[in-house]
Write a structure and sequence with these properties.
Radius of gyration: 25 Å
CATH superfamily of the largest domain: Collagenase (Catalytic Domain)
Shape: globular
Structural class: alpha/beta
Number of helices: 27
Distance between the termini: 8 Å
Largest sheet: 4 strands, mixed
Strand order of the largest sheet: 2-3-5-4
Number of strands: 9
CATH topology of the largest domain: Collagenase (Catalytic Domain)
Strand content: 5-15%
Oligomer: single chain
CATH class of the largest domain: Alpha Beta
């Protein structure tokens, strides 16, 4: 997010006040400190040039424990907690008014929540709740039958060796395309199966498989669990790494179904696609092309008994969160305790909110968007995000976008030909704020207050049908990928930048805070998302949304050289002894962070209109912009969660989202008097400047 000039009257108006504020916040009073920064959480004993993250957050880090029911603690999670409390109130009220099989949107949300909270019925049902899909696995007599069950994975509880998706066709952005990619693993990443440092987690996973198969009444569960782990280890060995999957050119391999069958014989593709609701599909995009022959061959040679046990386990694993305590507790012990280091399970109502609305995307196998996330989003924004706020922030983001144009126009390393294409692409971006203009229709979805697993399956089937039905028509440029209550933002394949209502709260945005703090937080987030359209992946998409190389060779070489230097910096960071950040995996997010904060600082300067910045508590305007960014990332993770993040998450650990960025911005050195000898100091020639 880089921004040199900002026509920012609306930004200033937004920072002065907005209807987005939490109703509990006193008008005119920032949530943190006197002007938006929690000075008491800083650590003045730490030199900013040695560890800026700790300088800005150290005392808070020292005094704030991680709650037992969470893998982390942070100000961003505090935002999620506020959303969760709001959703709890909404769902409780909806459940009170819901009938057994309601017809209204609020009634369906309430009935789903009520079905999750009915612990007595869930406990009484036990494994009977998933008896039909388990019985279907037992009846499967052939690999064709088992592939057909895999085809149901988008709409039911089954697992699949291959995952299907529907998104914009990168070779014809006016249409949608079906893609198929590697899948089949129950642990967070292939590294968990292959690398010795995850041996303990792999052992725990095998015990978990045996536990769920035992609860499911499977024959000889211990031996079956061993076979399942061996099967998934072979899948992992054949699979691409997440770094390989970041290349949009390498992962775009369109072909006919006949060509797919020739590429990967041994897997019944037609049976698989027919059960996915795609019997007449003619063209499909293969993601990890070189992995497919290996995975199909593995499927063809694996004993049917192992494939049955594998499928039975994944059905139980996908359902366990919604089942009786023996299943749900085992799910927690593996996915949240063992893999994320979280010692205590969340309260039942919190898990209910997650089930209906969505969580913070930290749990394995549970959809972070919830089963009725879009329905809940309508209720949430009706209550907490008025149209006036939506219009105000849309105008704000439009101004930041206009300012970004100014920065591209003044890049000193880009040729005029490439610059013209970049500006053309920037002009195509659509900014979406708060909530979708066209809400999802739930009229035909049946929700009952006594059928939790049925609700989960029907909601999943309705969502997949919605996606399949879109294949027949043109791309809907107004569509959203992220629910309104989500505490996040994104840059999507529709050349859209989306800021859901959930992220527009302190410390990311506080209508009562100092402007510099808001520029360092929400300003940098806006710029971060804009920059994603021009990071190492986004830059390969042109102004029409087509996967195409529109760069002059010399410009592309300049970009790649700068990105490589940035990646090397991040790969040198060690969040834990012996644990390194993967600079290649996190490349896109690191570029976006650097661009975002650079842009936010330029925007703040432009907003001053030539006047000196005020000094607050001895801190200059530039200092407060950098502190606003650092405070936005205030938080810490458990060690197991860090290990998991480093191998499976494209975002760098939060301390490096601060320290890794500021050390590459010249103004930070001037603002905090950073000198050679400080641990974060980089000579000017080694500082990376991309956008």
């Amino acid at each position: 997010m880089r921004l040199r000039i900002l026509a920012s009257t609306l930004l200033l108006a937004l920072f002065a006040g907005s209807a987005v504020a939490d109703p509990a916040t006193t008008a005119g009073t920032p949530q943190y400190g006197r002007w938006g920064m929690d000075l008491a959480g800083m650590d003045p004993a730490t030199r900013p040039g040695d560890d800026f993250f700790r300088y800005a957050n150290g005392r808070w880090l020292d005094r704030t424990p991680i709650p037992a029911d969470k893998p982390a603690v942070s100000l961003r999670l505090a935002m999620s907690d506020r959303i969760e409390q709001r959703l709890h109130a909404l769902l409780d009220a909806a459940a009170t008014d819901a009938g057994p099989q309601p017809s209204t949107l609020a009634g369906k949300v309430g009935a789903f929540y009520k079905s999750f909270m009915d612990e007595a019925r869930i406990d009484a049902l036990g494994v009977k709740a998933i008896a039909p899909p388990l019985d279907a696995v037992r009846r499967a007599a052939s690999r064709d039958d088992l592939a057909a069950l895999m085809g149901r994975s988008n709409a039911d509880l089954e697992g699949s060796l291959f995952g299907l998706g529907i998104d914009v066709d990168l070779k014809d952005p006016s249409r949608y395309a079906v893609s198929v990619g590697q899948s089949g693993l129950g642990l967070p990443d292939r590294d968990y199966y292959i690398k010795p440092e995850f041996a303990a987690q792999k052992t725990a996973y095998q015990a978990y498989i045996a536990k769920l198969l035992t609860l499911s009444g499977w024959t000889n569960p211990e031996a079956a669990a061993k076979d399942v782990v061996a099967f998934e280890t072979a899948i992992a060995q054949a699979s691409w790494t997440q770094v390989q999957e970041r290349d949009p050119v390498a992962t775009w391999n369109p072909m006919t179904i006949a060509e797919l069958a020739r590429l990967a014989p041994g897997f019944p593709w037609r049976r698989f696609l027919a059960q996915a609701g795609l019997p007449d599909l003619r063209r499909i995009v293969v993601v990890e092309k070189s992995a497919f022959p290996k995975l199909a061959a593995l499927y063809a040679r694996t004993p049917i008994a192992t494939l049955r046990a594998w499928q039975a386990f994944h059905i139980a694993d996908n359902a366990a969160f919604y089942l009786s305590p023996p299943f749900a507790d085992a799910w927690f012990d593996l996915h949240e305790k063992t893999l994320s280091g979280q010692p205590a399970q969340k309260a039942r109502w919190q898990r209910g909110v997650q089930a209906v609305s969505g969580g913070d995307c930290g749990g394995e196998r549970i959809d972070c968007f919830g089963n009725l996330g879009w329905a809940v989003g309508q209720l949430y924004t009706d209550r907490y995000f008025p149209p006036s706020a939506k219009a105000q922030i849309e105008a704000l983001v439009a101004n930041v976008k206009a300012a970004y144009r100014q920065r591209i126009e003044h890049l000193d390393w880009m040729s005029d030909a490439t610059r013209a294409q970049a500006l053309k692409k920037l002009d195509t971006y659509t900014i979406k704020v708060g909530y979708p203009d066209h809400p999802r229709d739930y009229a035909n979805l049946v929700i009952r207050d006594d059928d939790l697993i049925g609700n989960v399956v029907r909601a999943g089937a309705a969502d997949w049908k919605y996606r399949v039905d879109r294949l027949a028509g043109p791309v809907d440029r107004s569509a959203w990928w992220m629910t309104p209550q989500t505490n996040d933002a994104y840059n999507g394949s529709l050349r859209d930048i989306v800021f859901p209502a959930g992220i527009l709260q302190a410390p990311i945005f506080d209508p009562n805070a100092d402007a510099a703090i808001n520029y360092g937080a929400i300003g940098a987030v806006i710029g971060h998302e804009l920059t994603h359209g021009f990071d190492d992946e986004g830059r390969k998409i042109d102004a029409a949304g087509t996967l195409r190389d529109w760069w002059r060779k010399a410009d592309a070489a300049q970009f790649e050289a700068r990105a490589k230097r940035l990646g090397a910096q991040y790969s040198a960071f060690t969040p834990l002894p012996g644990v390194h950040v993967n600079g290649a995996l996190t490349m896109g997010e690191n570029i976006a962070d650097l661009g975002g904060l650079t842009l936010a600082l330029d925007a703040y300067h432009a907003s001053l209109r030539g006047q000196p910045a005020p000094v607050l508590d001895g801190l200059s305007g530039d200092q407060r912009v950098f502190l606003g960014w650092a405070q936005a990332w205030r938080g810490k993770l458990r060690d197991d969660a860090v290990r998991r993040q480093v191998v499976s998450d494209p975002h760098s650990p939060r301390q490096f989202r601060v320290d890794g960025v500021v050390r590459n911005i010249d103004a930070w050195y001037a603002a905090f008097d950073i000198k050679p000898g400080d641990k974060l100091y980089l000579p000017p020639a080694e500082r990376v400047r991309i956008w």
